[in-house]
Amino acid sequence: VDVLDFLPVEHSGRDSVIVILQRLAEAMSDYQDDASGLWWQVIDKGGVEGNYLESSVSCMLAYALAKGVRKNYIDAVYRDVAVKAYQGILEQFILEKSNGTIDLIQTCCTAGLGNGRDGSYEYYVYETSICVNDGKGVGPFILASLEMERESTAVDMSSRLNEIIPISLTCYPNPF
Predict the structure, then answer these.
(1) DSSP characters over 75-96
(2) 91 touches 62 (CB < 8 A)
(3) Rg of the chain's alpha carbons, rounded to an integer?
(4) What does the pLDDT look like over 12-57, one tens digit per residue?
(5) What beta strand segments (E) does 52-140 contain?
(6) To bridge 93 with a disulfide, which of 11, 55, 111, 146 should be the other Cys (CB 3.0-4.6 Å)?
(7) Cβ neighbours of residue 91 closer than 8 Å, sequence gap 6 or more
(8) How many Å apart are CA 60 and CA 65, to the nearest integer?
């Protein structure tokens, strides 16, 4: 979704990128966990033993869907998918600490392919590490929060956002 900000309207590949985003929105909404609004570490194996709801994918998708709707790249129906995901992120992945700061939990910090990593289900759920406040999750969380705040009518959480966004920004001098 961000690449579209930099591709001129007349660029020959722009329409292809929009079609990819539209297909992604449709496919990923089918895999959204009904109860939490989040996505699983192994997307197509929700609820299978060892699999877990993962924060970076949930934050990235909430952001991409919300921005895609706002920019009219994808159908407005996906705003509800993004809002449900964001609510799930706040409820399940944001831990408020007694000192007033927050943590983003449940981010896979070691998954990848190559160098002996086979990409199997067992690898993704048993051989990877889970981190707190990993940049792959925090950055997309901030972006998703900004999208949700930008469209305040999309979700009635403005007071919660006013608490979370400043705190998340003070936790990281420069997360990017």
Answers:
(1) -TTHHHHHHHHHHHHHHHTEEE
(2) no
(3) 17
(4) 999 999 999 999 999 999 999 999 999 999 999 999 999 999 999 9
(5) 94-96, 102-104, 107-108, 130-131
(6) 55
(7) 36
(8) 9
